[in-house]
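User: Can you recover a sequence for this backbone? Please restate the input before giving your answer.

Assistant: Of course. Working from this structure:
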């Protein structure tokens, strides 16, 4: 069976400290015929470092663009790539041995596929106060993987990128960018929904292993929570034929859900968000991890609902 050629595409922004390790991991796979690294307008020395790395490995192709977001940078990377298959990796994801070859084998056997590999989060050996963002992310990612396995039709409807491959021709036909909208958080889900419309099929394979070095500070967690809400509203507008009103309750207990609804009400967010942040920090300092996680979920829901509401208000 002839395997298609594979170009790795990595988008990076302000992750110079992680980037060399990520590039070294995928460079260890001989089937990765080139490694296109798009620097999305950051000035942390990433581009200069990549130029140096390329001197010893000509497969590494640094590409600079002005900051335009993940989706635009992925589009640039795919356009620059020359392989039949593009393996799109996040800059904090470490490819496991044979990852490019594994993706290529799935594509050789499955025409019209969008392939997701498995990328569990590397959790700290010892939990520290404020680590709740990565712990919540890890729990939700594993739950999503179980949904993929139970019902493969959810792969494209709830796409989670970071370790993804697709035929380059299909990627160019579908496009990573959402026309008329720059999504800050759910650009991956929008891409999956466009792939669904285009007739592609989602495949999830745990054997395509990578490791996710996920880190988020508290301020980023809060900002991204609000962004998630805003993007969810936009997805409903962009894909009314594929998704309905999103459930924003995050599987909270009924009593907690009711409290969140009050805390997220217009005029309350500016008070409830700082209060929940303070409580979560205190819980972390006391090493009450379960309480810290519950408070973080509540905080996320308050900001998610706030973002959703603000986006809906702007649309009217």
């Amino acid at each position: 069976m002839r395997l298609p050629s594979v170009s790795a595409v990595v988008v990076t922004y302000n992750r110079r400290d992680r980037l060399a390790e990520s590039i070294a991991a995928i460079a260890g796979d001989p089937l990765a015929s080139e490694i296109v690294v798009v620097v999305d307008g950051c000035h942390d020395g990433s581009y200069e470092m990549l130029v140096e790395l390329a001197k010893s490995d000509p497969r590494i192709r640094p590409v600079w663009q002005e900051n335009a977001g993940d989706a635009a940078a992925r589009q640039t990377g795919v356009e620059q790539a020359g392989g039949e298959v593009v393996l799109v990796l996040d800059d904090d994801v470490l490819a496991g041995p044979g990852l490019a070859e594994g993706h290529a084998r799935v594509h050789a056997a499955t025409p019209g596929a969008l392939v997701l590999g498995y990328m569990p989060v590397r959790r700290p050996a010892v939990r520290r106060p404020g680590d709740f963002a990565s712990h919540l992310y890890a729990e939700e990612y594993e739950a999503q993987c179980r949904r993929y396995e139970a019902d493969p039709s959810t792969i494209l409807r709830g796409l989670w990128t970071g370790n993804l491959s697709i035929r380059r021709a299909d990627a160019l036909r579908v496009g990573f960018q959402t026309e008329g909208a720059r999504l800050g958080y759910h650009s991956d889900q929008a891409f999956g929904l466009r792939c669904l419309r285009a007739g592609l099929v989602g495949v999830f394979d745990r054997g395509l292993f990578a490791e996710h070095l996920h880190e988020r500070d508290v301020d980023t967690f809060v900002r991204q929570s609000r962004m998630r809400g805003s993007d969810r509203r936009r997805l409903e507008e962009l894909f009314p034929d594929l998704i309905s009103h999103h459930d924003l309750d995050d599987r909270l207990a009924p009593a907690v859900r009711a409290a969140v609804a009050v805390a997220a009400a217009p005029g309350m967010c500016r008070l409830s968000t700082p209060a929940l942040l303070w409580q979560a920090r205190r819980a972390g300092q006391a090493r009450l991890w379960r309480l810290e996680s519950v408070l973080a979920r509540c905080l996320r829901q308050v900001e998610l609902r706030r973002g959703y509401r603000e986006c809906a208000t702007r649309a009217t």
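That completes the design. DSSP finds twelve helices and eight strands in the chain.
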